[in-house]
Amino acid sequence: MPGDIIGEPQFSGYDTYFVGHIGIVGPNLQVYEVIKGGPSKFSSVESFVSRFDNPVGVYRPNGATSADMANAAYWASTHYTDVDSYVIDGNLSSLNWNYCSKFVWQAYFFGSNFNIGVFPYTFEQDGMHMWLRGTVTPGWILDHSTRITTTTY
Predict the structure, then answer these.
(1) pLDDT at 53
(2) What is the pLDDT of residue 120?
(3) Which of 23, 26, 30, 99 counts the highest number of beta carbons within 10 A?
């Protein structure tokens, strides 16, 4: 379903460093993700899942409505090309430096005005610029979501 979150919270063999990897299902039922070593991209669910050693979960954020999910899915599908580099940074307002769970959080926050798990971000200001600060992990996103199924291909 558009807006579903797919992935795993722990290392499972692909693009996960040590904290897992997640993507978001778009309105076209493709998985949008930010990956290390390459541009952000989208792929079929089958292709996404096939890169993992372990079964992959499909999750829905607790408290999100179907409209929240649809809006987040649309946001992801229209903003994934704005990501320039895979960088784990704490600026939650920035799209160009991004990573997997930050991108999924942004899709919900900016696409639906829905803060998954009420993530405890802070505001920082530099002159006239203000941004959101925090580092959101796949574990945070998935801990505040309900696993609806497990899939392997």
Answers:
(1) 77
(2) 83
(3) 23
- The token duo for 29 is 């039922």
C-alpha span between 84 and 39 (Å, rounded)? 7
Q: Which of 49, 46, 50, 21 is nearest to 36 (CA)?
A: 21
Q: Which two tokens stand for residue 52?
A: 């993992």
What does pTM read for this prediction? 0.90
Domain ranges for the chain, please list them: 5-151
Q: What share of the chain is helix, strand, coil (3-state, %, to 5)?
A: 30, 30, 40
Type of residue at 123? F
How far separated are the first and last CA of the chain, in Å rounded? 18
Distance (Å, rounded) from C-alpha 45 to C-alpha 37? 20
Nearest to 8 by CA among 55, 51, 61: 55
- Enter the DSSP assignment of 27: T
DSSP label of 148: E
Would you identify the CATH topology of the domain 5-151?
endopeptidase fold (from Nostoc punctiforme) (3.90.1720)
